Amino acid sequence: MRKSIGMVDGVVIAASSTAATSSIGIGLGLTAGVVGLHLPAIMLLAFLPVLGIAVAYGRLNRVEPNAGNSYTWVGKTLNPWLGFLTGWVNTVGTIVFMAYTTAVTGSAVLQLAGQAGLHSIAGLALDPDSTLQTTLLGLVVLAAATLVAIRGLALAARLQKYLLVFEYAVLLGFCGWGLLAGDQPFSLEWFNPFAIPSMDALAQGMVLAVFCYWGFESVFTVAEEVHDPKDASRGGIFALVLMLLLFVLAGTAFQRVLPLDELADNGAQGLTYFGEKLAEQPLAALPLIALTFSAVASLQASVIPTARGTFAMGRDGTLGPVWTKIHPKHGTPAVGTVLLVLIAASIAVLSLVIPTVTDLISAAVNAIGIVVVLYYALTAVAAAVRFRHLLRDEPLAGLRVVIAPLVSAAALLGVGGYLAWSFWNSADHFEVSAENGWFQLLVPALMIGTGLVAAGWARWVRKSPYFVTGRGTDADSVELAPSV
Question: Which residues 6+ apart lie within 8 Å of 483 measured at CB?
Answer without folding.
Answer: 325, 326, 327, 328
